Amino acid sequence: MRAAAQQLEATPAAAGVVYNLKGGLYLAKADAAAAEEAFRTAIQKNPNLLAPYYALAGIYLREHRPTRLYRSFKAAGGQPKQAGPHMMMR
Question: Is 87 exposed, middle or buried (0-12, 13-18, 19+ CB in 10 A)?
Answer without folding.
Answer: exposed
